[in-house]
């Protein structure tokens, strides 16, 4: 699960550029999802106690899965310097999540001539790359921010939800089974705009009863304190589960009827 690979790119016959930028569309595979769910399973019926300890104990605060993610690493970008005949580190890309495609751009620090050689160093099996390209960064564009004018909950207007969304210090809390519809008023000539949805928030993961049988505090300790060794030992189990993981992930659903808050 922790094995690096390299991808080499050559862009030829390039025009003069103001500021070359490397563009990438990418997502994670389900490796991070596997590791997070494994950690929850190792906690078993003590999941609440473990998270409380990780957040309040000075020795463990902030450790959690940071070590594992650091071992897996980013998508690191290197640019070939013809004069020095060496690869120069430009920066890296990282974004958690296997569903939404991230489109990001990295300004390149130094380029000469009409040819650009790049090297990507990344963990094998950790990323899905949909697009790689080179562009010219000419100016910074300030976006026009548009907030929703109406929010529907289960088809009916919900003014309380709209107030929460527009608030700077309050938050809208949704639960499994909730469906909200946001309505925006676009400016005239909106056909000339690119739309980008920006939101902030977090979600709480839930425990499945079937995970309790996987409780193993020793494995959890190893994951946190010795992530390199853990990843090497877990690689075989992951590769076996990887065969059916995609189907299981996309077919998974939560039955909201079982929640006590559900409205009949």
In summary, what is this structure?
This protein is an alpha+beta fold and 264 residues long. The chain has helices at 31-43, 47-56, 66-72, 159-166, 217-225, 227-251; strands spanning 4-11, 20-28, 75-81, 86-93, 102-107, 116-123, 127-136, 150-153, 156-157, 180-183. A hairpin with a 2-residue loop joins strand 8 (150-153) and strand 9.
Write the SSE topology:
Blueprint: E1 4-11, E2 20-28, H1 31-43, H2 47-56, H3 66-72, E3 75-81, E4 86-93, E5 102-107, E6 116-123, E7 127-136, E8 150-153, E9 156-157, H4 159-166, E10 180-183, H5 217-225, H6 227-251
Antiparallel strand pairs: 1-6, 2-5, 2-7, 3-4, 3-6, 8-9, 8-10
Helix pairs in contact: 5-6
Q: Would you write up a description of this structure?
A:
The strands form 3 sheets. The chain has a 4-stranded antiparallel beta sheet, with no helix packed on it. Strands 5-2-7 form a 3-stranded antiparallel beta sheet, with no helix packed on it. A 3-stranded antiparallel beta sheet has the order 9-8-10, with helices on one face. The chain is built from 6 helices and 10 strands. It folds into 2 domains: 4-141 and 214-252, Sandwich (Jelly Rolls); 150-192, no CATH class. The longest helix has 25 residues, at 227-251. Helix 5 crosses helix 6. 27% of the residues lie in helices and 25% in strands.
């Amino acid at each position: 699960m922790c094995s690096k690979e390299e991808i080499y790119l050559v862009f030829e016959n390039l025009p003069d550029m103001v500021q070359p930028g490397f563009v990438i569309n990418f997502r994670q595979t389900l490796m991070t999802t596997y590791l997070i769910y494994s950690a929850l399973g190792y906690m078993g019926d003590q999941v609440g106690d473990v998270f409380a300890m990780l957040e309040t104990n000075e020795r463990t605060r902030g450790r959690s899965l940071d070590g594992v993610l650091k071992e897996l690493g980013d998508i690191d970008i290197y640019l070939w310097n013809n004069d020095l005949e060496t690869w120069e580190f430009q920066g890296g890309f990282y974004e958690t999540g296997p569903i939404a495609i991230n489109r990001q751009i990295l300004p390149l620090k130094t380029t000469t001539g009409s040819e650009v050689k790049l090297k990507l160093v990344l963990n094998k099996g950790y990323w899905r790359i949909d697009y790689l390209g080179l562009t010219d960064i000419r100016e910074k564009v300030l976006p026009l921010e548009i907030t929703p004018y109406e929010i529907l909950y289960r088809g009916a207007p919900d003014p309380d939800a709209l107030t929460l969304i527009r608030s700077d210090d309050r938050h809208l809390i949704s639960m499994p089974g909730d469906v909200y519809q946001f309505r925006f008023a676009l400016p005239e000539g909106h056909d000339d705009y690119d739309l980008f949805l920006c939101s902030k928030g977090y979600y709480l993961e839930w425990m499945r009863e079937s995970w309790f049988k996987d409780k193993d505090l020793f494995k959890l300790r190893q994951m946190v304190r010795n992530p390199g060794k853990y990843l090497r030992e877990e690689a075989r189990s992951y590769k076996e589960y990887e065969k059916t993981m995609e189907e299981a992930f996309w077919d998974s659903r939560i039955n909201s009827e079982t929640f006590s808050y559900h409205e009949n």
